[in-house]
Amino acid sequence: MQNRIKGLRNKIAELGAEAVYITSSVSHRYLTGIDNQDGILVITENNAYALEDFRYIEVARARLSHIYTVVELKRSALYDTLNGILRDEGISHLAFEDTNMSVSEFNILSSKAEAKLLGLGNSVKQLREVKTPEEVSKIAEAQAITDLAFSKLLEVLNPNMTENDVAAELEYLMRKNGAEDKSFETIAISGARSSMPHGTPTNNKLSRGFLTMDFGATVDGYHSDMTRTVCIGRADTEMKRLYDTVLKAQTEALAFIKSGLPCSDADRVARDIINKDYDGCFGHSLGHGVGLEIHEGPNLSPMSQSILTPGNVVTVEPGIYIAGKYGCRIEDMILVQEGSVLNFTKSTKELIEI
């Protein structure tokens, strides 16, 4: 945590601020390790304060007192507490999380805080893009649970199930095998509906054709993300060609990705392969960062300005979607390392026919 706080201090110094006011629950968890949706942090050049309400004060004192001055937060006295810290520390310029604050919250803060406010922008999110070994371990564990759930699902998957059955089974298997929660709303869509990248499962029986499943688990707040497409019934020649094109696009992108490359270049490798025969059918980006949030930086998109860096955890998930017919996506999650990548995802990518 101290290295994360140090990195944030460097960011706020670049802004010309002497302190930062943290209100995002994700930033709070990143900087403390405690999942408190309502906790507030004030970090100055020399000190750090954790303002925690009664529900979390005991755990905060036990876990944070070696780094933070832990203060029991009374919401009615929030700005008195904040301004007391600002006066004691001699703070005249306060950075705040402008990307995570409503207009009404900003109006209150600007009227109450006894300091000039400076927007922090994406500074914390940028720090989170490079994962520590501890974070990598949690993500790897989450993905191992996700892989296991898929392998167990294949033992029971059958055409008499509904899309909701499939989604519920995957979520049950992830929880049963150690996940604290699902990463996001599980996608399980079949037949013509598989052309919708983020379609919602229904109570209808699985339709013949592609069944696309996008799902993930969380471990200590860290997410995994994986997509596999199987076929309900036998795949015809065109379906096999489409599936093989997606797989080739993913395989070549995975082989291409390495530290130091622009994220947009990785997207282009996969997109060029797909556009050769399925121009306009790959409508989303190649991938995105994963960590304490399921979608975070860097993005592997055509417009991305980011450069791949050791410690980045990103998805590689090309897809082809033909409206009213079917769609297919294959997604792995990888760690960018010096000179190589580590693929967390172990599930088979052979076209399975159920």
Question: Would you mind describing this structure in some detail?
Answer:
The protein is of the alpha+beta class and 354 residues long. It has two domains: 2-128, Creatine Amidinohydrolase, Chain A, domain 1; 133-343, Creatine Amidinohydrolase (Alpha-Beta Complex). The protein has helices at residues 2-15, 25-32, 57-64, 78-89, 103-112, 123-128, 133-156, 163-176, 237-256, 263-278, and strands at residues 19-22, 40-44, 48-52, 69-72, 93-96, 116-119, 181-182, 187-190, 209-215, 217-219, 222-223, 226-232, 287-289, 296-300, 313-316, 319-322, 326-329, 332-337, 340-343. The strands form six sheets. The protein has a six-stranded mixed β-sheet with strand order 4-3-2-1-5-6, sandwiched between helices. Strands 7-10-11 form a three-stranded antiparallel β-sheet. A hairpin with a 3-residue loop joins strand 2 (40-44) and strand 3 (48-52). Helix 7 (133-156) crosses helix 8 (163-176) and helix 9 packs antiparallel against helix 10 (263-278). The termini are far apart.
Q: How many distinct helices?
A: 10
CATH class of the largest domain: Alpha Beta
Mean pLDDT across every amino acid position: 96
- Helix/strand-derived category reads alpha+beta
What's the CATH topology name of the largest domain? Creatine Amidinohydrolase
| CATH architectural label of the largest domain | Alpha-Beta Complex
Q: N-to-C terminal Cα separation, in Å?
A: 47 Å
Query: How many structural domains?
Result: 2
CATH homologous superfamily annotation of the largest domain: Creatinase/methionine aminopeptidase superfamily
Spatial strand order of the main sheet: 4-3-2-1-5-6
